[in-house]
Amino acid sequence: MQSRVALVTGASSGVGACIAQGLAERGWRVYGTSRHPVAQDGGAIRWIRLDVTDDETIREAAFTIRQAEGRLDVLVNNAGMGVAGPLELIAPEEMAMQMDTNFSGTLRFTQAMLPLMREGGRILNVSSLAAVIPIPFQALYSASKAALEAAMEAWDTELAPRGIRICCLQLGDTHTGFTGHRRFAAAARDNVQYGERMRRSVARMERDEENGMDPRRVAGCAVKLLEGRRFPLHKVCGAGNACLYSLRKLLPRSFTHLIVGTMYGGGGRT
Question: Which of 31, 141, 194, 245 is catalytic?
């Protein structure tokens, strides 16, 4: 039987690396992308340079897969980044960087890969619980994931007649290099009004991430989804996260807003 072909963006580290490796160990032909060139060392993963905000590298990646395989069975949209800071102080260029990477860049790359999914396929988007439980001082990151999930849910309906299905895998705190690579709004660094609250909020989040879920566990969840019979529109990874998601649906929005505000914002609406 011909090996199935998968492409994982942001596969050089963290969750993306674990998903790519997990699929390769299951016999998939796996292509991983990175913004920086990675040496082709003869391993199980074939590397492609890609920056989802750069249309030229998007075209080159699609051409590489078309020439090498002629088709794509699975696309894992994992590449992403986060800008932290009070929304009032985030500059337009910082807003553009956040939304272009996590939202519009991901959509453009998916558009480029869809012609290779002529016989159907699956698109897995690595998302976040922040899409449904927005985090203070991470407002744009939360918005980028919420926007991506909304667009992908509509897209799933559009693509269904072609046998292409979409799932958004929602993660909670996960122990990866994402924590150390979080960017901060330049105007917020020495701001008196928000500074101390922002530092406490981000410090709390960083502690939770450092003690968070192992990315290999996320990869196990992703591989199970990609190989399983069911492929739901939304899937929460981890029992604790699933419980939190359920509480968010059951409890009044004002109550969860107060809890999040108390945990990460130094207060909340009463």
Answer: 141
What is residue 239's predicted lDDT score, i.e. its pLDDT? Answer: 60
3 is catalytic: no
pLDDT of residue 269: 53
- Average of pLDDT values for 64-78? 97
Residue 171 β-bridge partners: 128
Q: How far is CA 92 from the centre of its chain?
A: 22
- Angstrom CA distances, 6 to 30, 47, 71, stand at 5, 12, 10
**Cα-atom radius of gyration of the chain, to the nearest Å?**
19
Candidates 31, 34, 145, 264; catalytic one: 145
Of 34, 127, 142, 144, catalytic? 127
Active site (annotated) includes residue 141 = yes
Asked if residue 197 has pLDDT above 80, the reply is: yes
Per the CB < 8 A criterion, the answer to whether 140 and 95 are in contact is yes
E strand segments, the chain: 5-8, 29-34, 45-49, 74-77, 83-84, 121-128, 164-171, 183-184, 234-236
Q: Which residue in the list 12, 34, 144, 201 is annotated as catalytic?
A: 12
